[in-house]
Every structure is written in C-alpha cells, then in structure tokens.
Amino acid sequence: MSFSQIGVISQNTPRELYELSIHKENEILWFYEIESCFAYLLYKNLDLILIDNDIFNKESVVKYVKTIQQMYPHILLKNINYSSSYDLLNKKVYIPKLEDLFLPKHHSTVFQPIVKINNNGYDIIGFECLSRFNYYEQLLGPDFVFSYAQESLELQKYDELSLHRSIIRAPFINNKLVFINVRPITLNAPNFEENLLSILNDNNKAPEQIVIELTEQNCIFSEKLLKNKCNNLKKLGFKIAIDDFGVGISNLGLVELMCPDFIKISGKFVNELLTDATKQKIICNILELCQSLGIKAIVENIENEEQKLLLHKLNAHYAQGFFFSKPLQIEELLLISS
Q: Core-most of 24, 28, 118, 195, by most CB within 10 Å?
C-alpha cells in the first residue's frame, strides 16, 4: 500500500531547519502537536498519520485519535519509534509549535486594496490587512494557522495579537480606510474597546479610519453582547463590516444586530458569475438591500475585466480581488497609493 500524504506527529525536531527549504515535496508533513494535524485535516487530506511513542498515550492525543478515527475512517493511524523511523522521513514540511508561527520573523502582514468602481476604472478607498505565515520558506495558510489556534484553545490570544500587529504595521494613507479582521471570540472579549484604543493611541492613529471586519460569524456567542459591542465601537468612531456575506449563519440577522457600514459579499457568488443567472440575481438582491439600508456593499474575489464590467452593470460600486491588486507589501501599497 502506498501513501501520497503522510502526517508525522512528534515533538522531536526533524533534522536541521535550514534543510527544510531544500525539500519542496509535500510527501511528509511533520506536526509538532496533534492540534495542528487536526486543524490541517479540516482543509486537506492525509492517508497515513504516524504518532511518536513519546506522546501516543497522552490523554489529549488519545482524544484526538478517537475523533480522527470517527471523522476520517479512511486515514490509517500508527504509533512509531521516532529514532528507528528517522531516516525514512527525509522529505517534509515542518509545522512547529503555535507560538513559533507567531514570532514576528514568521508572521507578517500584507495589504489588499479595496476599490470603488467608476466609468474610467476604479479608485482605491482603503485596504484590508491580511496575515501571512512563512516558516523557513514554508508558506502556511492563515485559515489553517487560526484553526490550529482554535484547536489549541488560544484563538482569542493570537487573533488579538494579529489585530494589534495589523494596526501597528498598517500605514495611514490620506483618508483611506484600514479593514482589520476580528473574530467574534476576540470582539466579545472584556476590555476589547479599551485595548484597541490603547494600541491606536500608542501608534498615533485614529479610530475613524479603522473598519472592524467581523469574520467567521459561525462562532458568535451572544447576540446581545455583539450588538452592544458594535454600538460602542461606532460611538467611538470605528466603522463596522460583515465579511463573507451570504454564507454561514443568518447574515440577515447580523445586519439587524450590527448595523454595519460595509457588507463584503462572499466571493462564492463571483465564481461562474458571468454565466450563472441565479448568482447574478442573488448579488442584485444583496446590492438592493444594502442600498436601501445605506450600507456600502463590497464584492470580493474579482479576478478579471469581464467580472468587473458585469458588476458595474449590476450597480455594484465597491470591489476587492486580484484583478485590482494582489495583497501588497507596505512599500508596494505606498507606491500605488501615491
């Protein structure tokens, strides 16, 4: 039996880390903790998981093994003796401890412009701050990394750290807006507003240019608390946005609760937009709803001229996507903004 995707869970560091940049093949993924392996399975497949004997019988590991067996019965799980299996595991991607991924040298911020479409093209109105993770030339997706944080019960800690770094790293350009992703667990935290204002004050920045963009709405805990938080933030000068509108839980309920300034229409509706009449009608209905409520609607994931022209025809005024700009380093952002 051959396995194309193998996961190894061991707290023994494989070889020297500088060697990892040589091996681009993803034949073996080396997880420092089982939580990161479980988070990985939410996005990609593994055929075989090998678990080091040193941790195989730990209570937390046993719990995850049982869960993996129930959710992914096709995956074969085995325990191994790390020392005797060492030489077989020479091609790998190494996924370290969560805290290592968030070291400043591995965690960076890039900035993707958000634009207003007009007859002559478009104008940049702001940009979204996006986390990137590069561990010794290994790019790890932010969705995976924050799922890893959630499985480790440290999502709020690292989401708040990412938010604060976004504020510190983001340039304030004229009157352009800064969109910053926040998960409900962080938004609902005690003293969220005070901590946010403190970071802004320390960096000579004002709340009027910050858009708090609520993401992963399926994690909302208290509707009453969410409504109060949004009201308080708006009174302080912040703007509010709902991310991925149209997917997940009742977004219409969130509109009533949050009274957002912006709604970002999920890129899911942009796929096959040119030929799918149903998706065109859905976008039109959302745009009409937003217009009637005085909300600016931003359509995500625009990738080509044809999509942009159709959106303009449908009276979509704001958009984001690779057609307008990829996520940029700060120097690139300052250059195009000037």
A: 28
